[in-house]
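Input/output pair, single chain:
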Amino acid sequence: MKIHVCVSCEGFPLTIQIASGKTHDRQHFVEVMESIKVKTTGKPRTRPLEVLADSAYDDRQIRKYLRQRAIKSNIPVNIRNQKNPKRGRPTRFEYDSYRKRGTIERFFAWLKMGFRRITSRYERLNVVFKGLLDIACFMLCWKKIQETF
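Output:
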């Protein structure tokens, strides 16, 4: 099983999904992006301003999807895609804002260090595993909020 998470720059999870381990991560990118809903005073926010992703998500369809939704993409070019160089305008990549991507790595580290049951995945049912992920994310968010006060 793979865990697909979209995290804010502060480290709060915006959406969590699980999928089989056989599929590539970029096949679930659109699905994860469509499930983002941040409650605000008015209409819920469904689009981030910018997406920071690693080079596994360097794909024409992903970049086109983000462009259609008016979301900035900050994805480095994958070296494996250099065999067939892309024509046209070079892709956008800003190293300074890409450094913020460490929050997703820290999120997974907190998740796997604090909750060993999620790391070893003892549960057979996906519903139970997803429930444990939700509880773990709630506890991580609660801890972050408590640290600020």
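Strands lie at 2-7, 13-19, 50-52, 72-74. Residues 77 and 90 are 10 Å apart (CA to CA).
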